[in-house]
Input
Amino acid sequence: MKNCLDLINNAVNNFEVTGVPRGCIPYGNGHINDTFYLICDEADGSESKYVIQAVNRNVFKNPRQVMDNIEKVTKHLKQKIDNPREVLSLIPTHNHNCYYIDKHKNCWRMYQFIDNSICIERPERTSDFYESGFAFGKFQKDLTDFPAETLYEVLPGFHDTVNRYKNLEKAIKADKVGRVASVEKEIAFIRERKDFYSVLADANKNGELPLRVSHNDTKCNNALLDEKTRKALCVIDLDTIMPGFSVTDFGDAIRFGANTASEDEKDLSKVGLDIGMFTAFADGFLTGSEGQLENSEIMLMPEGAKMMTIECGIRFLTDYLEGDTYFKTKYPEHNLVRCRTQLKLVADMENHWETMKQIVSKYCL
Ligand code: ADP
Ligand code: GN1
Ligand code: MG
Output
């Protein structure tokens, strides 16, 4: 998509932008969608700025449902949030739609660009991670009264860890690209923990974990911060909004941002849980959600962190065994390297289990 200028320009021409489009450039470091930054020249000499994205059709088989979810949720948020920099604003097409499907069936959408914002790839300081937690916690709070069951499950079973594990077992059995023999240690680690994978689903059945709107991609690069104040600004990347659990949103953020190393660090001695970052994010998330979460949910946050980490490890390993068809990879062992960081992080979370529980327990009412 990145070089298809005609496609992008054609898409731009279908949206109600103000001013004259000057040009689009690839933007951001997202792994899923193709994102472009668009500047338009206004008659008075000023500029208007937009983000135009092609939704990844390989991941999202039904982009209309994705857009329907985003439209409903942003509409709800706009009733509570006045500041246009704090909520994504969809730009309509000339036909009053919130997306445009081109002749190649690419689904395009456009947002107002949130100016003077920063997008952190990994938190360098605890205060940034606190703000990221605050943004996602507030997102939970603002959507407490949204009927989660009215959202489409755009990625069915996205955080169904039991099923993710079953898929791994299928991939092991199929051994499509002959890689199983080289990953026996990783497989054993994952099998040893198989009783854990149903813990959140069971808590939901027992009434300890309510169904809510979950974001499902709470990496810190999906919460913009204000460039000057570095305060939480806006939650972005709403493709994966679905009915789900607060603790998986919490957990996925910890998985990514409270790792002492990056997701694809090859030196496993660098990988571990940064308790300072964990504490900061928990503080931000539980402050931002302002008493909307139940005590039983708060106490399950360490489980959410461990679940998201092992689930991601399972997904990376499955993709590795299936020949790297889902996650974008830069070299042949990339998915395996990512899997190993996740498993190392799980082991370190197990070492810090009581500390994590104590930290979150302070927020129970
Ligand atoms: P992906 O699913 O590929 O991660 P995102 O929706 O997160 O796609 O967008 C990719 C990047 O584009 C973000 O990390 C952010 O830097 C930037 N971005 C997206 N939407 C906006 C916006 N409305 N204003 C400013 N920057 C944005
Ligand atoms: C994908 O590309 P990004 O950062 O938005 C994936 C997440 C994984 C993550 C691992 C829709 O997210 O679930 O946790 O990679 N998103 C989807 O880096 O599968
Ligand atoms: Mg993103």
